[in-house]
Amino acid sequence: MEHEFKKKFGQNFLSDKNLLQAIVNDAEICEKDNVLEIGAGAGALTKPLSEKAKRVVSFEIDRDLQDHLLSLNLKNTEFVFTDALKESINTIEKHFKGEKYKLVANLPYYITTPLIFKFLEESDSVDSLTIMVQKEVAERMTAKEGGKDYGVLTVMVGFFGEAKITRVVGRQMFFPQPNVDSAVVNITRNQKFKDINRKDFYEFIKACFSMRRKTLANNLSGYLKLNKTQLTQKLSTFDLTRRAESFSLNEFIEIFKEIKK
Ligand code: SAM
Predict the structure, then answer these.
(1) Which residue has the CA at smallest separation from atom 6 of ligand 1?
(2) Residues 90-122 pLDDT 10s
(3) Who's near 65: CB < 8 A, 6+ residues apart?
(4) E strand map for the chain
(5) Which residues form ligand 1's pocket by a CB distance below 6 Å?
(6) pLDDT tens, 184-214?
(7) What string of DSSP letters covers 199-253?
(8) How far apart (Å, rounded) are the C-alpha atoms in residues 238 and 69?
């Protein structure tokens, strides 16, 4: 297949069959599963997905790949040639007729965070996300509190599900070779915090981390428009002299609930 690789679409393709199969295994795909792939590329991952899954819907923005992808004649597979970020979750999920699905993707780096948040925030039908992302983004998603990697991304991913790194993938596995290594992250959705307003919680967490080196009291007094004394009174059971990076997800949830009382 002849193809002019397009940097603007984050086109770094995989071809190693063992690695591609391993990603399908990481996603725990079986014959009952619907799969959504974002970014089919040359179909390297679509193929082993289609061999395992009940049905695959694969989005690809680059129409130059259309003839090649359709010529693969993959069973149970539908290709959609459009920008997945611009499609509403509703439109995307119509392809699965209301059934649950798993998202599997070797994501173009430039859409990693917006795409993950789009599905975590807006979808009730996505069961898990198994995604290849930049290694440092994977480390931020799965970080433990207390370290420099722990931040808004960690807390928000934890709010929606359990995240783990299933494998690290060196840059030499891609063509063209990117400047960074990658990792596969598996996020399994759970409904632990389904009663908490997602958007409000996200705004709260962004405020908590707005100045990383300041105490939580500093960051929250602006957000809540309270002076330090009022704030300490309102949240008297919490030690607000700590920095945001030292608080666990459950502690953030407790503080958030107290604020909303
Ligand atoms: N899955 C293939 C593989 O593993 O070899 C290709 C992965 S490549 C990192 C990302 C693919 O996503 C590219 O083919 C690119 O054209 C496509 N892409 C980029 N932005 C997209 C978007 N907004 N919607 C759908 N596809 C997109």
Answers:
(1) 41
(2) 999 999 999 999 999 999 888 999 999 999 989
(3) 3, 40, 41, 42
(4) 13-14, 34-38, 55-59, 77-80, 101-106, 126-134, 161-169, 174-175, 182-189
(5) 9-14, 38-41, 44-45, 59-62, 83-85, 106, 108, 111
(6) 999 999 989 999 999 999 999 999 999 999 9
(7) HHHHHHHHHHTSSTTSBHHHHHHHHHT--HHHHHHHTTTS-TTSBGGG--HHHHH
(8) 56
CB 29 within 8 A of CB 49: yes
pTM of the model: 0.94
Mutation pick for ligand 1 pocket among 18, 58, 61, 85 (CB with most ligand atoms within 8 Å): 61
Sole residue written with tokens 């957000």: 223
Which two structure tokens, joined as six digits, stand for 153?
């991304």
10 Å CB burial of residue 43 (0-12, 13-18, 19+) is buried
Which pair of tokens denotes residue 22?
A: 């391993």
Burial (Cβ within 10 Å: 0-12, 13-18, ≥19) of residue 215: middle
